[in-house]
Amino acid sequence: MIIGLTGLTGAGKSTAADFLRRRGCHVIDADKVSRRVTDRPDILEKIKTTFGAECINADGGLNRRVLGQIVFNDAEKLRLLNAITHPPITAEILAETKSHEGETVILDVPLLKESGLDKVCDFVLRITAPEDVRAGRIMARDGLSLEEARARISSQAPFGGPCIDIDNSASEEELETRLTEVLCGQGLKI
Fold first, then answer.
1. CA distance 68 to 86
2. What would the pLDDT profile of 85-100 be if each residue is shown by its tens digit?
3. How far is 67 from 155, CA to CA, in rounded Å?
4. How does DSSP classify residue 158?
5. Dihedral (Cα; 99, 102, 108, 110), 10-degree rounding
6. Strand locations in 14-110, DSSP E?
7. Cβ contact 166:178 at 8 Å
């Protein structure tokens, strides 16, 4: 079974994914796949050519903070970055999904519909939380200012397909309880 896991930044997808991993699901984290892809020399060169040398650190790695400042304030630049990175990220995710056939696979993908990966899912879980809660989480997690956190929030559109919403505005324990209830309701024993 393939389950999509999505939600806007700061909603708690990673917390949900960690819980599902502990319960025996194979979790594919699109952010980790993205980091592997953006470490590739061919992708780094495309980013450098498209967005400038300041996006590359002295050691040759990606300066994610600079790139984030560029793309999260400009929809066209974000579209360009996605055009560079989404195809290889999606290809890696599909290959890993295939290698775990027969298992419960969780696709932890913030842009599930935009990537087209929602089409391979049996169903989609969308983790939700109010914007002020999400902004606080982003600031704490990424060391960003409120303005930077809001720019990241405003750069994302909510998942637009059929899904099961799971509110994560309270405690981790409540999130885990809700996830267990929903997945048991879908016939999974976790």
1. 16
2. 999 999 999 999 999 9
3. 14
4. P
5. 90
6. 26-29, 105-108
7. yes
